[in-house]
Specification:
Elements: E1 2-6, H1 10-21, E2 25-30, E3 46-49, H2 55-61, E4 68-71, H3 76-89, E5 94-98, H4 102-110, E6 114-116, H5 118-131, H6 134-137, E7 140-141, E8 144-145
Parallel strand pairs: 1-2, 1-4, 2-3, 4-5, 5-6
Antiparallel strand pairs: 7-8
């Protein structure tokens, strides 16, 4: 699958590394070249400095041949704008966008965007961790081990 990921922070770079390791053709687009340092040394995809809400940058990233587009920046407006462009201008078959604000996420989802809200996912995970028996969690949630001991902080 040919995937374009807008945003190379922790989420975007982790997704890019996972997809690359599975053999997908991954292009990562970010406005800041320093963000590519989050990618692993063995990343085999393409890194492009550019704005995912700009048609020329999207074309440079190969949007016209993309099977999927994922926007992962911290900015809901940028994510949604880029996702709308990928979906409606370039007719990318699979478009997914992060929307941090749960109210906006619900609204954009109702308008037909495939959305993921990290805020809701983390809140649900924290609630599960809080209410679950400690033995059921195995000490951590999402691969993160809970620190034991220390000064309680």
């Amino acid at each position: 699958m040919r995937v374009i990921i807008m945003g190379c922070g922790r989420r975007g770079s982790t997704l890019a590394a996972m997809l690359d390791a599975e053999g997908h053709d991954v292009t990562v687009l970010d406005v800041d070249a320093a963000a590519f340092s989050f990618l692993p040394d063995d990343f085999g995809g393409t890194e492009i400095v550019g704005n995912g809400a700009d048609e020329d940058s999207l074309r440079c990233a190969g949007i016209e041949q993309a099977d999927a587009f994922v926007s992962t920046t911290r900015g809901d407006n940028r994510n949604v704008m880029a996702a709308q462009m990928a979906k409606h201008i370039f007719n990318v078959p699979r478009v997914i966008t992060l929307v941090h604000d749960p109210i906006r996420e619900e609204m954009y989802r109702s308008l037909g965007l495939r959305t993921v809200s990290p805020t809701l996912i983390v809140a649900h995970s924290l609630k599960e961790a809080l209410l679950a028996e400690e033995s059921a969690l195995g000490g951590g949630v999402g691969g993160v081990e809970a620190a034991e001991g220390g000064n309680g902080g």
